[in-house]
Fold:
Amino acid sequence: MQRLQKDPYTNEDLAGIAARYDDVNSFKKNEKSAYAEIQRRGLLGKLCGRMKRRIRSLTNEDLAEIALRYETRTEFMTGDGSAYNTARSRGILNNICRHMTRKIARSESYTKENCHIVAIEYNTRADFQRGNCAVYRVAKQRGWLDDICSHMPVAGSGKKRKVYVYTFDDGFAYVGLTDNIHRRKKEHLGQFRKKRSAVLTHIQETGAKFEFKELTDWLDATEAGQVEDDYIKKYAAEGWTMLNRRKGGGMGSRTGIFAPNSICSLVTAYEYAEDFKEKEPGIYEYLCNNHLYSKFCSGLKHKRKGPNYWTLEKSLKVIPQRETRTILQRSQYQAYVAVKKAGLLGDYYPEETRPAYKWPIDKCIKIARTCKSRRELHKKYRGAYNVLWKAGVLEKLIPSQKYWEKYNDDEKMKIIANCKTKRQLHDHYRSVYEWLRLAGRLDEFFPKCLSKKP
Structure:
């Protein structure tokens, strides 16, 4: 038997708890359940917007010290994600992680045994994919995933469902099916959504004790619907009063924090997309990965910085955090432009003389003669291709292919005569169109219309 859990928080209760704190970090640390409930209901901006946030100001030396605490990049990212992301954005991640070892460093090491060693560290396939995507992808491509993940419990999905039952000591029962048994139990006890289920309503009205039982293992969704309906009829025939409001077999919809109604309530609590991305990173990532961002977040505004935001003073403060001008240009382009306009880019990032060509031209010529076309040379030997192109000898070694030469002059004229417009010739015989255009004879065969519109 399970005991009736405490009633969920009301919005007034959450507002009263949040009013006791002035700092988000202390509120999150001391009131974990209340903070989580506020986050689920999309009230962070309303109840915690006035609170202060601690901002970590980490130098490159601080990031290097933090990185020394971890042995792998995965542990670094999991243990201190903000420091990991800061180091990656500044372009110093490789430098401060040189002491770290990779569990599987080369493609030759992706054996089934090594992949199994990595998979044992995770409890679910989702955690395995998020924690070590490279090993997960290799195992999936080579057909090892079921074998190395045999220790992981099977989770439901849109194609897998499980049938369960709630029985009460007053003779009532409820039969249902779900793709996530743990989430569904919480929903029936009112911990996730505002709408009360038939189970929660019966508990609150009668106070009856209940027992939860899983009736089946994971079944196909189509089969599970029929099994649920059979169990409803079975319990009704045994004398139980069923709390089911509709006939069994319905697949339901996705519920929980990723349900459409829950996402809409979260999004409407924010005015700007930047605030939503910062305070709801999990929901934001889910929407982006499933191509749903434009559907739910089209009404959010964007904080646009004015043209004079990046002054020279602000731009110079960013420079110590960027090792090269390329990193500065990619991460903070407006700051890069401001420093460049002031003529100070060379003072902070002196230009280095570029080394000579890596490929000797004699070697490039030998390589070019082994290739049948420029495309093959460019694809296989990009460096040799660039050397020959800059030296101006590429045309002599591999002449550019004139793809219209597959037609003789008579065939070209027949094709032109059969086309009524330039557009028709362009769409159906592009090579002949290019030959005619380069010869400057397009207007000869397709004169421009000189008539004006009335």
